[in-house]
Design brief:
The chain has one domain (10-108): Sandwich (Immunoglobulin-like), CATH 2.60.40.10. Helix content is 10%, strand content 56%. It is built from two helices and ten strands. Strands 1, 2, 5, 6 and 7 form a five-stranded antiparallel beta sheet that branches. A five-stranded antiparallel beta sheet has the order 4-3-8-9-10, with no helix packed on it. A hairpin with a 2-residue loop joins strand 3 (40-46) and strand 4. The chain is elongated and about 45 Å long. The protein starts with 9 loop residues before the first strand and ends with a strand.
């Protein structure tokens, strides 16, 4: 069954807001958009170690033949403060992409 061309996801990683951090938690958001066919998988890492706790990943949604998906990693304020590098790894068929955020540089890759 042919579903059209293979298009890898566009991946964005958004850090938590300072307001949210002041309230005691920190959530990072990983957004996947405009990919085809479905079948994208996400995983999170904190300082290089895979994290499963505090992860909420949406089901894949289709619109106009392309798919999107999001995943949120929620950490305690303490865990956020002690960690340095946060990553969202996306596997889509035979490609893997990593979006990462390094706190000390306040930059997203």
């Amino acid at each position: 069954m042919k579903t059209g061309p293979m298009v890898k996801p566009s991946v964005s990683l958004l850090p938590p807001s300072s307001l949210q951090r002041s309230e005691g938690t920190a959530s990072l958001l990983c957004l996947l958009s405009a990919y085809s066919p479905q079948g994208a998988l996400l995983s999170w890492t904190v300082d290089g170690a895979e994290v499963n706790e505090g992860v909420l990943t949406s089901t894949e949604e289709q619109k106009n033949g392309v798919y999107s998906r999001s995943s949120t990693l929620t950490l305690s304020k303490e865990r956020w403060e002690e960690a340095e590098v946060f990553g969202c790894t996306v596997s889509h068929h035979d490609t893997t992409q990593v979006a990462s955020f390094r706190k000390s540089r306040c930059e997203v890759h």
